[in-house]
Amino acid sequence: MGEPPHSKKPRRLLLDTDMDTDDFFALLYLLKQNRSEFDLKAVTINANSWSDAGHAVNHLYDILYMMGRDDIRVGVGGEGGISKDGKIYPDVGGYLPLIDQDMSTVGDCRYRQAIPVGARLNIDTNYGLRRSFLPQGSRRYIPLLQPTAQQVMIDTISDGPTTVFLIGAHTNFAIFLMTHPELKKNVEHIYVMGGGIRSKNPIGCCLESNTSCKPMGQCGIVGNLFSGYTSNPYAEFNIFVDSFAAYQVFHSGIPITLVPLDATNTIPITEQFLAEFKQHQNTFEAQYCYQTLKFYNAFFMWDSFTSGIAISIMQNGDKFSGENEFAVMKYMNLTVVTSNKPYGVNDGSNPFFNGRAVPKFNLTKYGVHSGHVQTGVGDPFCLINGSNWGRCEDGYTKEVRRPEAVQVRVATKAKSNQDHKSSLDREFFKSFLEVLNLPQQTGRFNFTTEFPYYRATLYKSNFVDKPKGKPVIFDMDMSAGDFLSLIYLLKAPTDIINLKGILVSGNGWADIATIDIIYDVLHMMGRDDIMVGLGSTTALDTPILGCKYVKAIPKGSGGLLDSDTLFGLGRILPRSPRGYHACVKSILFSFLLFPVYMM
User: Fold this and answer.
1) According to the model, what pLDDT value does residue 74 have?
2) CA of residue 579 relative to chain centroid, distance
3) Homologous superfamily (CATH) for 11-104+113-338+373-447
């Protein structure tokens, strides 16, 4: 006889995320579940996608603190490497795709260049909302003490059966599978948001009623690389940024449920949803999500939809069919494309095979990994003269026949709301708002209620009747040495040095969201009168999408991770009322941008 329902242990969950907007929506949806059923044990951060490690980990700590879940393990980064012969050393940090990972955290941005640096600025700061809304607890990134992504994965999955959610690049989990195959037995199921199979991108498409409209750009492509579809119209970001890692996950033998663009394209945010959301902000977590959506002119329920489908499947008994409330499911035979035909051509694009008598990881010569690997969004191999769409398929979750195929349970479209009187047209919309507004497992406070006596006061020095020295503008890239120099300049007598402004370079030793630390240092020193200007995010005469020179800077310890957090000290500075703030965009609702098909 089986155990009675009340004696069942809660599902142990592990979430691997890149802390993009839709990622923390999914995180909050999971945190709101009844812990007697679903217990989120750990969160690991993927650091080679939409956010930068130092900013992402502190954002995560703040959300967990708001939700009263400081018990959840958090892992990010690591200084391990992969040798030329394919040996994987402990604690590979996941800063680079597996194809470019060597023995350090220095490397190119072959795939990540598809994500504009300015977009990462908005994600790292959550458009400026993160520091103005979220409370701040005692947990923060501290050099040498921060658990790595691999440590947290190993410890969590070793503790018992675990359901894994992958809603960013698959680098961290692929490394885990390749180094600890004996622990695969503890992974019950993998839920993935990513890929596109038969999807047709609705962005840039025309309403059927508008006969004079001409489709533009991405309309109709399988993928969603808005910055790179002219070279690769098949890939979706989460799979594209490390397609070889995704291949390892899909072919691991662990049961997978995939929520691709096929399904998420059918659940765009609508005017009616936002109007309903505006009226239902009864918790801090609901307020944080609603205020974030104001910055988007088009948004789909990507990762949160995945969380909802997964929870519903598990609540419905994990049936083979994947029965759930929110999406139509179907089994498909898939693989992840990692290189382009013809296979076995050594053109210098593929480090797994370039100049090697034995391919890295003992891959098969002339096999599916041996073709041309896309080198960037402007790769000439991928471009087709006279066409707006390219030929490369790196990261394509493609239907194929066996033996290369893996059977995957796939969400194909969102279910309509069963309540036809509701203004919400999708069943998951109703669940999302209900769950976020539950009084249980709710946020304890935001920044304002945590610090009720905080006042947004600007401190400006009065030099009216004092002699002023030579006006100085300080140009800095926000390395630790730059901050020491800044403090030295601020301490200098103003009749000798009159610091008038700071120019910030976004292509040096820190990511540009670190500009907030400058504001906090100036606030601490009583110099909120000094203007701060954000400069270029790329070097002169280099493409907007790329990392031509900044790739020489380590992404982990001693590099960007430590600079972005000022070696963990940025969090102990007083909070300036000034900071990076994105402009709230006028919401052009999805039904104005592209047709919304009722399913």
Assistant:
1) 98
2) 22
3) Ribonucleoside hydrolase-like (3.90.245.10)
Give the DSSP letter of residue 511.
-
* pTM for this predicted structure: 0.93
SS3 21: helix
Element housing 504 (H / E)? strand 497-504
* Cα–Cα nearest to 338, from 420, 234, 446: 234
- The answer to whether the beta carbons of residues 460 and 528 sit under 8 Å apart is yes
Q: Which two tokens stand for residue 339?
A: 């290189």
Question: For residue 591, what are its two tokens?
Answer: 């039904």
Task: Measure the CA angle with vertex 22, ends 18 and 28; round to 5°.
Answer: 95
Length of the chain counted residue by residue: 599
**What whole-number distance in Å separates Cα of residue 166 and Cα of residue 172?**
10
What's the confidence (pLDDT) of residue 589? Answer: 34
CB atoms within 10 A of CB 334: 22
SS3 38: strand
pLDDT of residue 7: 56
Q: List the strands of the sheet with 162-166, edge to edge.
A: 73-76, 38-45, 11-17, 162-166, 187-193, 256-259, 406-414, 327-336, 397-399
**Residue listed under structure tokens 């960013």:** 168
8 Å CB contact between 287 and 434:
no
43-71 burial, b for 16+ CB within 10 Å, e for fewer? bbbbbbbbbbbbbbbbbbbbbbbbbeeee
Cα 266 to the chain's mean position, in Å? 21
Domains of the chain by residue range? 11-104+113-338+373-447, 470-572
- The pLDDT tens digits for 390-405 are 999 999 999 998 888 9
Strand 406-414 with 470-476, pairing: unpaired
Residue 203 C-alpha from the chain's centroid: 21
* DSSP secondary structure string for all residues of 68-92: T-TTSEEEE--BB-B-TT-PBPS-B
- The gap between the terminal CA atoms of the chain, to the nearest Å, is 41
Q: What is the residue-wise DSSP string for 461-498?
A: ---TTS---EEEEEEE---HHHHHHHHHHHHS-TTTEE
Residues of the chain with pLDDT below 70 are: 1-7, 541, 584-599
Q: How confident is the model at residue 591, as a pLDDT?
A: 32
Given this model, what pLDDT does residue 465 score? 74
Question: Which structure tokens are listed for 261?
Answer: 């663009």
User: What secondary structure letter does DSSP report for 573?
Assistant: S
Which residues, at least 6 apart from 380, have a Cβ–Cβ distance to it below 8 Å? Answer: none
Paired residues of 42 in beta bridges: 14, 73
Peptide bond connecting 342 to the previous residue in cis, omega within 30 degrees of 0: yes
Residue with tokens 């990511």: 511
**Model confidence over 220-263: pLDDT tens digits?**
899 999 888 999 999 999 999 999 999 999 999 999 999 999 99
